[in-house]
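Q: How would the structure tokens look for this protein?
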Amino acid sequence: MSTPSAVRRTALVTGANRGLGRAVCDALAALGHRVVVAGRHKGSVQRVAAELGGDALAVVLDVTDDESVRRCLEQVETVDILVNNAGVLLDGGTSPASVPLDLVERHFQVNTLGAWRVSQAYLPGMLKQGWGRIVMVSSGVGAFSNGLFAGAPAYSVSKAALNAVTVLLAEEARDCGVLVNAVNPGRVRTRMYPNAEQTPRDAAVDIAWAATLPDDGPTGAFLRSRRRIPW
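A: Here is the predicted structure in token form.
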């Protein structure tokens, strides 16, 4: 299937070995794009790439590790689309007054700094070629308009920080052909939210849409169901 613009892009998806990340890979491949399946476990990303077929590529990537990101960049020097999907939710049921700060740090390392680290690796190439799309997979609990969630404070604050990174990177890339946005996919039935009603496949459609926006599409925006929502 060809893309609406008939331009085939290379898309790297982090945390792509299962759940929402895997579904995003499927959605982008269905649009005709070449997909780079990135994740920490070699066997699982290789399996996903093999199932996608074609010229899909598996890359071992730990978004918290500078050296791992450097090796990924050596294997795949430039990408047109980056979907920062890798994330953790490990603090459910804690409270802001008692959540262990080393657990908070872990959320920031993956959810915020991990996405920032990979974006720093690939944004220069996008700016050089004059085209790129970066999508941060965020959450409604990271939005002040929605209300931060005290029942998972580290996760909530790390996503709020990710939203801030989105705005900053979008401003730096403004008018350079690169759009940077955050998507709130809602609650998705994954290992993180096993009882959610929405399937990964349903949520992936909106993320793939944000990853393939036209040149006059929004940037520095928080998106849900293909529309801008307040931060």
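The chain has a mean pLDDT of 94.

The radius of gyration is 16 Å.

Upvote if useful.
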